Structure prediction request, 463 residues.
Amino acid sequence: MEKNKTKAHSVYVSEEEKTLNWEEIQSSFQKTFGSEIYNSWLQKLTLIKEFNDYLILGVPTRFFRDWIVSRYLDKILEQVKSFKLSLNRIEFKIIEENKQNQEIIKYNELNKVTEIKDSILNYNRLNPKLNFDNFIQGKSNDIALSYSKKVCEDISRYNPLYLCGGVGLGKTHLLNAIGLELQDNNNVMFISAERFMYHFIKSIKKNDMVNFKDFFRKSSVFIIDDIQFISGKDSLQEEFFHTFNSLMDKGSQIIISSDRTPMKLDRVQDRIKSRLAGGLVVDIETPDLELKIKIIRKKLEEIQSQFKENIQLSDEVINYVANESKTNIRELIGILNRVVAFSRVNNKELSINDCKNILKDVFSQIRVITVDKIQNVVSNYFNISLSEMLSQRRSRPLARPRQVAMYLAKKMTSRSLPEIGRRFANRDHTTVIHAVKTITRLSEQDDEMKKNLNQIKSILLDQ
Ligand code: ADP
Ligand code: MG
Prediction:
């Protein structure tokens, strides 16, 4: 068996494989979400970096990020997936508005460096967060998990290892974990079938099939995700078949994932199906309640340590969330993120009713919070008129509500400090900063203020 003992490369996207046109995606957001939501939120998203399976998007504030995650993330992902099927995740990076351009330039420069350093394709994209340590074992996945680990100890004993299961059940996570485990001592290739096709077509166009063949056939561990994608694509199947055979011949380990068993693959040549089924086929089933609860608890721990914040969900709420998501762990995590974002914004322990409200058809319940709305709600709440709130008078019964409104405008909208200042009768941004500081301090020290803020927020969120 050939093994590459030097530190191997794992594969992925090089800069020249960038495929997304962000402007095009933005205009699709505008159509799907409507102008109001688009202008308030989505327009502010910037594309920082593109990987084969995920994107890093820039957001101006943490609140903004939470808001987007809790309300629009699923739909954004769905939308970008329609431009690039292999995407399955979006990460956010908080970048102050005036630094956004610099940040994008910085990333692009980094890209260039890696591009020069590594030849085409040698771009490490194994996600370090998807490892064995944070893959939670349950009845539905323990066979898949234990064989994934065995493959790492005993290369080419189970060959190919074929993991199958529905969407969002952890296939990519396991493949990635295997890749991480083996990458130090092997030449690991980790690619989705869709990307495989991308390279295939590109090589045909460039008349460079020799390199393509060499490249894929030199790996000692070949991991291919979502093989069902080759369905109906005959020339791709042909190429895959040859790659597969050549890798098997030299004793490379092959690991494959799919949403169905080999024999159920549609429009795939029989000889390929039988080769795929020739090793070990293991199923990942839908998670039971116990596993879902374990995953929620683990994710909560991760969020706590990531944000250094104490987020508590009662057992009742955890159970509720676990039951809400019937079959899919990705969806379970999506729901949990929404619930956590809400609890952070509102700073309170959630009841089942809160959860129901949060999850009640999230997209049809979209509420956009604007500075105008905040000014109206706050002035009403404190029983002063809008013109009093915006006036230059400094008496405390007017100044406090004004500061509260500025504070909320900063926390709950994506407006910048100068913009908020302008909306408050052309005040300077330093006045807004002062208001935010004052109210932040009071909200920590003064119970009355804390209560007021919570009530105002829930009015805003309920409207
Ligand atoms: P698939 O490839 O089967 O569609 P993924 O591997 O992308 O699913 O999993 C979806 C999400 O659920 C990922 O965020 C993954 O980390 C998470 N996940 C799935 N199964 C588990 C598990 N057993 N423990 C922890 N996280 C999991
Ligand atoms: Mg997957």
User: Anything to note?
Assistant: Residues 1-17, 107-124, 361-366 have pLDDT under 50 and may be disordered. Residues 2-94 form a domain with the GMP Synthetase; Chain A, domain 3 fold (CATH 3.30.300.180).
